[in-house]
Amino acid sequence: MSHRTIHLFRKGLRLHDNPVLLGALCSSAALFPVFVLDERVCVGALRCRFILQSLEDLDSRLRALGSRLYVLRGSTLAVLGDLVTRWAVTQISYDTEVEPHHARVEQEIRALAEERGLHTHTCVSHTLYDVRRIIQAAGGSPPLTYRKFLHVLSALGEPEKPCRDISAEDFLRCPTPPDHQLAFGVPSLADLGLEVQSAVLWPGGETHALQRLHTHFQSQGWLASFSKPRTVPNSLLPSTTALSPYLSVGCLSARTFYRRLSRVYAQAKNHSLPPVSLQGQLLWREFFYTVASATPNFTKMEGNPICLQIDWYHEPESLEKWRTARTGFPWIDAIMTQLREEGWIHHLARHAVACFLTRGDLWISWEEGMKVFEEFLLDADYSLNAGNWMWLSASAFFHKYTRIFCPVRFGRRTDPQGQYLRKYLPVLKNFPSQYIYEPWKAPEDVQVSAGCIIGKDYPCPMVCHIEASQRNLALMRQVRTEQQKTAELTRDVADDPMEAGLKRELQEEEELLEGAEPCSKSKRVSGSADHKSRPSGWPPEVT
DNA sequence: TCGGAGTTGATTGT
DNA sequence: ACAATCAACTCCGA
Fold it and tell me: What global pTM score does this model have?
């Protein structure tokens, strides 16, 4: 076969372990590497910068092999339809992705191919396994706990091996047509109307990804003994690999990383295991991809069958304080600052701010937090972001909601001097360590000599953590009791519709007596005024 | 119906 | 630093 092929890059911005591109090259006399920049690529400026850098890198790696990357703007389908005609294309290749937006585009591509009589070439290479195989092996529905997930995987065996790197020879039979003009170059951030002030800590691209990977593999002992809960959320340099941004756009292949870890484990006397090991982290990624692929409305609460239905508060001002690092809790604000400026924060730091926003303190929907993370995280990912937000808000997967992170003590445990806080919140840098996690408790003279008056130079804490978390705990208990009742009713309906009807009437009567609104469709705790009111005396007067 | 497990709490004591 | 204790929820399998 000698096709004229468009290889559509979406994720998978790499030339190592890229089986679809390799396969397409083998069957092509000409191949056009294409990336379509649509508005979804430019959600946040930091991430957009990262993606543009990744495209630049891909282009220069392709150039080294005698090819070029063609970057176009518009909708994928419209761009492809146009290029197919212009370049007399006979085949389109692309990685199969599971998230709804990408799946929709794939459907459109298949329809286009059908209409124009084109070949398509595709398979999965973003995850360790094709998650459809996992779901099949699990009997049709995804496992909702990690252990069960691992159990299902044990029946599937090891993930597929990464394929060989693509070399110049692979491109020999398909030279770049001479019409690669300025029009197909990678645009700058400014071209897209975006601007970023902060320095580049995580330069995008396969080259950087492989360099970072290489550096980590110099410390094989560290890789083998890696244990996630033991890593420190507030170290000044990442205590984990921080390869997630590269994995998220496929600058680094999860299969390559996994395989290389297997080799290290084989050499090590003993090594850590999932869930805490490094391979365990890749399997967490796989876990959330699997569940997300089989759950409708995975990034929403409503219509999401695995998500607890909660009447979260609608408090735009509180949300904005959290988003812009003005909660008054240095631990929370430092993390949000690192997130906004650098685009990467440690997993446990994500726990801290997510718990604070949702079930811990503010009782604001995890969807709001998810959107903020989507805007700022370099590694923002449809499945992982939503999955972890549901986890942390105890909406799904995780149920021990009585375990609430304390926004003062959690950070202090691993950084009692508050170095991390001083770095990201310089306004607090002169506070004595004793007060730096709760500066509002510092006497006036201490505040004066630190050059930072609480309530003026740095905000007062926006809530009383003890009171808020106790109130939220009670709310959560209520939600779950209500939901349990509904579940019982639903079960009864299946058993005995008549009796269940009676029971429901009785229950509604009860609720009317209590002054609660009967709500037959979905049981939610009412976010009534007494829950919403903040304790009067708070925030404390600044003396 | 009961007991054990669930990726990583907080506090207190050694 | 590590262990025991606290107080405690949901799900699942026996």
Answer: 0.91
